[in-house]
Amino acid sequence: MVVDRRLDNILRILLQPGQADPNSADASRVYASAATVLATLTNPLNVSLLSTQILISPAIWENFDGLKAGLRVFGVFQSATLGKIENQDSISILSVEEWINAIVRGPITMFPGGNICYCWGEAFCRAVNLSVETNETNELEADTLSLILSHAMQSLSRKAKEVINYDALLPVVIKSIYYSREGFQSGYFLSTIDHDIMNIEGKLAWPSKSNSFLELQNRSGRPMFAAMSGLARLAAASIRHAQEPAVLHAFLESLLNFSHILTAQWKMNGLSEIPMSEEANLVDEDSLKATIPVVWQILKSILFASTLILQELMSRVAESPALCDSENGPMIASKVLHVLRGFYFITSRLGPNAFSSYNFVYFAAIDILSSYPPQAEEFVKGIVPTEAGSIPKKLPDRILDLFFLNTVEHFSLSISQSVNEEIVIPATSPYLAGGLEASLHAHFEAAHSVMLSIISSPSSAELGSRILPFYIESAFEAFPTSLSARQFRLAFGTIIRECSPPQPISKLQPHLTDVILEILCDRAARASTEPLPNLVDEGAVGLSEKDVCILALIDGLPSMQVNAMERWLEPTAELLDMVENPGSKLRIRERFWDVLSSELDVERAEVAVKWWTMGGREKVLFGKEKPEGVEGIRSML
Question: How far lies 99's CA from each of 7, 104, 105, 344, in Å?
């Protein structure tokens, strides 16, 4: 009788709108009472009745915060189930299995075909299908379904999961994550920030008591945000099991549209013009500690969730011949890269190698698209900087330029010489000059990598031979003030290799290698012997400009034609003898030995051994000095 009275009471409460508003003080008692009564009912009809009323109750659902209500309803069934299991004994009138069947039977009879008996997991999944297949799912229903299913997936059996219509589920989940008011809200939350940004004593300030920050803080603590990783995994599972390629293309279009909106909203935000390296000087302390970290945490959440979903997509494409064919593969890869471009203002803050999942998505898309040159060229043309030939003034545009530079480097082998010449080089050239401001150093490094990739491209050999003089001059002008020792050595190692047989450039200009080496030797002879600053390259601490030039020459020996290498062994040893610093001389000597002893092929090694035994050893170890012993050289010498 006590239970019956408690059932009557809770049913009356559930029929009164607003009684279980999750924001009211009495709400917790309503949910707790519902869970307690549900766990103690022994009549299966009453169990079905109460479970049904909880799911349609005006007291729960007719309020302005239905998503919190949905999460609490989930908690009611979870708590009731745990309570039933804990209080189960051998004389229970209703077993746990019978009780669960009664719970499922109530709601399932509300739908067409609900009289068919399924296991509770399958029943739940069929209820999900009934919701997502109607094409009339409202925002609250979609958000609640996505949130609850993300919690329930790990408890469902494989057989139950097979029931789910993932083609219909995927757009519902994606809409909830990216476009609903409870999710990322199409990125429009960024636009409200700019209204509250002010200038205080010459520094940008976003007060912690501003409406935009309080709203953002509240948003970051809401159910969808708290469960974002689970929602992303649910979306990934939907991609894994989706049957129709059109569903995957629609998902990418939706995500691409979101990334465009997010980028546009960020550009209108005053925070977008502050380089991370200058934040301490341009932003007030309260904003740095209290407000700005919150917005960046939300933006990182967007990037991480999207990367997790795209990782599953690219894995599926790589494994499926149907998705990797000429119709689907390049289109999917291109859209993925466009999405990553839209998120690059977030990625660039974290660093390109911040997490492996991003690198997998990025390079998998590049690998696929590189296999289709026409589509690769179309993609490159689509991301070319809007102000090609000059450095844009606005930071968001500079960040997009950096994405272009870092990405186009990987397409130099796939795209035609005309695209490299007419599109890539003009967009790259402004960033090749030394002396750029500190915030553009990443652009500078990327631009040099792009030029080297073009020089290394067989399809652009004629262009490479024409731009080499310009690039060599740029490299010499930038080193050592901007171009690091590591980059300088890499650049000349690459140039020597590409100008030597059997590379195409060597056929166009057979004597180019010797010309470049003469220039390098002349620079080494005149270069400064002062130690390089630590800021340029930590790996070159203690080395001078002269030392690095000699090391660059040594690095190129394995790539030279045999006759050229034989000619340049002697001048290299003479340059080594000109080094006055004992520590630097020892490092260069050891590098010389490493190349001669372990980095040459058989033909070149024979030449090196002959030179070494016919006076080369003495020139490397002692130079013009008398052989009185050398400390630090390996005993094998």
Answer: 16, 9, 10, 51
Cα separation, 133 vs 118, whole angstroms: 19
pLDDT tens for 110-166 read: 655 555 455 678 878 888 998 898 766 688 888 989 998 998 898 899 999 999 999
- Cα–Cα nearest to 66, from 215, 212, 220, 223: 223
Handedness of CA 556, 560, 566, 571 (dihedral sign): negative
pLDDT at residue 113, as a whole number: 52
Measured distance CA(417)–CA(423) in Å, rounded: 10
Contact 484, 441 (CB under 8 A): no
pLDDT interval class at 635 (50, 70, 90): very low
* CA separation, residue 144 to residues 72, 116, 185, 226 (Å): 11, 25, 16, 14
**Cβ proximity of 455 and 468 under 8 Å:** yes
1-7's contacts with Cβ under 8 Å and 24+ in sequence apart are: 3/37, 3/40, 3/41, 3/42, 6/33, 6/36, 6/37, 6/40, 7/37, 7/41, 7/46, 7/50
Instruction: Report how far residue 77's alpha carbon sits from residue 38's, in angstroms, rounded to the nearest whole number.
Output: 8
- For residues 204 and 282, is the Cβ–Cβ distance under 8 A? yes
Angle between helices 44-56 and 27-40 (to 10 degrees): 160
531-543 confidence digits (pLDDT tens): 887 655 656 778 9
Closest CA to 379 of 324, 329, 333, 315: 333
For the chain, give the percent of residues with pLDDT over 90.
59
Domain boundary assignment for the chain? 2-117, 168-371, 374-478, 500-637
Q: Which residues contact 498 (CB under 8 A, 6 or more apart)?
A: 455, 456, 464, 505
> Tell me, what amino acid is at 12?
R
Predicted confidence (pLDDT) per residue in 28-76, tens digit: 888 888 899 999 888 889 998 998 888 888 888 776 576 777 788 888 9
Token digits of residue 436 = 């750029």
pLDDT above 80: residue 200? yes
